[in-house]
Amino acid sequence: MTPATDVQRLEPQDGEVFILPVGASFEEAERLCEAIQTAKPGVRAVVVIGELAHLDQAAMNRAGWYRQ
């Protein structure tokens, strides 16, 4: 379980990305999603487990993600 000291108070806004540490479980991500909806119903946000990396269009194409 993620230690309480790793949790920060956030005001969820549409389009925000919440990043959980690499060791977080899927269940913790689900609970965060539920908490976001409870805190601000209807807000649209993304919850990610682990680090994010910026990919250019060529890298996305190699991975099979095609932009239209």
Question: Which descriptors would you attach to this protein?
Answer:
2 strands; 29% helix; globular; two-stranded parallel ribbon; alpha+beta
Describe what you observe in this structure:
Helix content is 29%, strand content 12%. It has 68 residues and is of the alpha+beta class. The protein has one domain (13-62). The protein is globular, with a radius of gyration of 14 Å. The model has no long low-confidence stretch (mean pLDDT 85).
Give the strand tally: 2
Strand content: 5-15%
- Return the structural class: alpha+beta
Biggest sheet descriptor: 2 strands, parallel
Low-confidence stretches: none
Dominant shape? globular
| Spatial extent as radius of gyration | 14 Å
Number of helices: 2
Overall residue-averaged pLDDT value: 85
Specify the helix fraction band. 25-40%
What is the N-to-C order of secondary-structure elements (H for helix, E for strand)? Answer: EHEH
Number of domains: 1
Distance between the termini: 39 Å
Strand order of the largest sheet: 1-2
In short:
This protein is α+β, with helices and mostly antiparallel strands. It has one domain.
Itemize the secondary structure elements and their pairings.
Layout lengths: L16 E4 L5 H14 L6 E4 L7 H6 L6
Parallel strand pairs: 1-2
